[in-house]
Fold each of these.
Amino acid sequence: QVQLVESGGGLVQAGGSLRLSCAGSGLTFNMYTMAWFRQAPGKERESVAASSWSVGNTAYADSVKGRFTISRDNAKNMVHLQMNSLKPEDTAVYYCAASLKHGIRWFDRYEYDYWGQGTQVTVSS
């Protein structure tokens, strides 16, 4: 079965950095669009970043552009999210997601077939 497991979350002060990792099993990463979503208490799950399997294009939500970087190591079935200049509003559970669909709307959570359990990121002010 396909499994995605996130790690690297924690508690940091505003302005700090974290690097999230997603380890996959039961899938070949180079065939998937990989993405990070996040969900804060009382809010809907929202897109953060995505990395296309086709060309290697990346996309980011406006709220994190310039601060977050998604990267992937297909040989190791790993995807990462480097988060810099963290803000309290970045506080959320962060989820790794994967999709085999072509030409997906990267920001749409319903395009993704597989999800990890999430890792908590808390940014204090």
Amino acid sequence: QVQLVESGGDLVQPGGSLRLSCAASGSIFSVKIMGWYRQAPGKERELVATITIDYRTTYADSVNGRFTISRDNAKNTVYLEMNSLRPDDTAVYYCNAHIQINLKMPPDDYWGQGTQVTVSS
């Protein structure tokens, strides 16, 4: 059984910074792509950033230059460093990981429970 546990969400003022973490645990053979998505009230879930096992990254245009995704493969953990936060960054942030639990099984998608980020003065 695989679990993704996020942490780091909080209330922050505009222009502030936050760091989200997400650790994958359980029966894991390999963690392929890891990423962060977010969902604001009344909106669809959207991609924020992804990072491959060999550290290639992609970002949504809205966060490029402000957010940085990174990972620690030894800890099966992904991070999202968020700077210059704006009110429109307010959302529940979800961790996603493409995980292979053994050599016989193809990778599958797993999701965390979500962590709330609120940007407000």
Amino acid sequence: QVQLVESGGGLAQPGGSLRLSCVASISIYNTQYMAWYRQAPGKQRDLVARISRGGSTNYADSVSGRFTISRDNRNTVSLQMNSLKPEDTAVYYCNANVDLLTFWGKGTLVTVSS
């Protein structure tokens, strides 16, 4: 079992920034990949960004150029979110893929509003 704990959510103004962090109970270098997903009210959960064990990254088109996923240390993955838009409002979930098993955090709420 892998525990994932997100932090860093909150209220931001349009054009502002937030940094989300995900602390894993295992070394993230033992995962196939780490990812951030988000789910807005009434919508499905969608991939935001992903980083593989080798360090390659993928982003949703809607966040490309504004969000950056990174590995801070052996247990922490972060999502730097810049130029936030109201449509970025959602619960953001940390995700880990380990040996074909998928684990989720409980999520952190991001609200973008003036």
